[in-house]
UniProtKB/TrEMBL annotation:
The organism's taxonomic lineage, starting at the top: Eukaryota, Metazoa, Chordata, Craniata, Vertebrata
Domain of life: Eukaryota
Gene Ontology biological process terms, A to Z: late endosome to vacuole transport; macroautophagy; protein targeting to vacuole
Protein's UniProt name: Adaptor protein p150
Species assigned in the record: Xenopus laevis
Keyword terms of this UniProt record: WD repeat
GO molecular function terms attached to this record: ATP binding; protein serine/threonine kinase activity
Amino acid sequence: MGNQLAGIAPSQILSVDSYFSDIHDFEYDKSLGSTRFFKVARAKHREGLVVVKVFAIQDPSLPLTNYKQELEELKIRLCSSQNCLPFQKFTLNEKAALLFRQFVRDNLYDRISTRPFLNNIEKRWIAFQILLLGDQAHKSGVRHGDIKTENVMVTSWNWVLLTDFASFKPTYLPEDNPADFNYFFDTSRRRTCYIAPERFVDGSTFSTELESIKDPSTPLVDLTNNNQRTRGDLKRAMDIFSAGCVIAELFTEGVPLFDFSQLLAYKKGQFSPDQVMGKIEDSSIRQLVTQMICREPEKRLVAEDYLKQQ
């Protein structure tokens, strides 16, 4: 999916409100930002505000119907998971694919730096819910694929909801080309990396017709053919690593454990997050995070086991 969009000229990209002309029951409210992958808007519905993610179709050969079916199945599986907020509606037309979910004002990244600041009890309650939502999703047969502070929503009463399940994003990424990470996962442009180290693999395993292009901003991942290397099964341990990074950031007042280059160095044993981990004053949380971000995925426990430990 990234390959086909990498060279699109800005003049071909429409404003986000233009995609609402064919949508009934939803009224465009305002833009919430955009990346090279999605345009995001807030819309009004008779039942409340919703978030709409717009994927502009530049290549009709993309298997968007398959991805839509995946998201519909995911919605059904998560129907009884109280802490999970999957996309509720999916619209596909000639211009774009649109994903709809309930609007929640604050994500965890914003809440960490918003007064009144969270106290230790509130942080532990949020951390507990992060483990709980992971357990709920995994027991439903769902893997998230992109757990980060921007996708963990927090209500005014500190109820936590996991949003923007990313089954349509590649499982594996080339470690020698940051374009894929930037395109699919660095939506905040903070360079913070929550992706499990085992998801980064040798870039030579990605064979696409665009590999000969020298532009380093061109993603190597091609989602048009459901390549098993990129679309391999997400593992529970991958989500556990990401959740551990989120919990660490919660207890370090917003200091992330890894950026992209540090995560790759961590995978090779050339970097340690101990300096940031030292900012976590709660020893039990520090021990929890240490286990969750273990370099070897087989040594990470399932979410239920971490819940039993706390």
